TrEMBL record:
Keyword Transmembrane: yes
Protein name: GtrA family protein
Spans through the membrane: 14-35, 41-62, 74-96, 108-130
Superkingdom in the source lineage: Bacteria
Subcellular location as annotated: Membrane
Length: 132
């Protein structure tokens, strides 16, 4: 019984999305920290670059593994994927700016909370709009 439940969980799109998203988030946050702290870019520029690096990494794995779409990428699929992430990125920038400038949260901590929010919006967008 527990093996069946465990198997059901690990094969679910939510679980797979979270795994891909976790790795994509590491790519995203690593790029953000590197650009912000080492290279001295503003937190907004570092956010965009980190976000886009995570999106690029996650596209293939979300499509093939998390949502099980094996067909070749077409223009609608690629565009809708990037539209979901573009809207999420815009929302993320707004939330990040609010947390940093309005709430005086340190940019590294504010970005963590922004990533949590955008992860939720990304799953809903990908599951119900892109890979339906």
């Amino acid at each position: 019984m527990s093996a069946m439940i465990s198997n059901r969980i690990t094969n679910s799109p939510v679980f797979k999305f979270l795994i891909v998203g976790g790795i994509s988030t590491l790519v995203n946050y690593s790029a953000y920290v590197l650009l912000f702290t080492v290279f001295g870019y503003t937190y907004s520029i570092a956010f965009v670059a980190g976000f886009l690096s995570g999106v690029a990494f996650g596209y293939y794995f979300n499509k093939r593994w998390a949502f099980g779409k094996q067909e070749a990428s077409n223009l609608r699929l690629v565009l809708s994927y990037f539209v979901v992430y573009a809207l999420s990125m815009i929302a993320g920038i707004l939330v990040l700016k609010f947390l940093v400038t309005g709430m005086q949260v340190h940019p590294l901590i504010a970005n963590f909370f922004t990533i949590v929010l955008t992860t939720c919006t990304n799953f809903v967008g990908l599951r119900y709009l892109v890979f339906r």
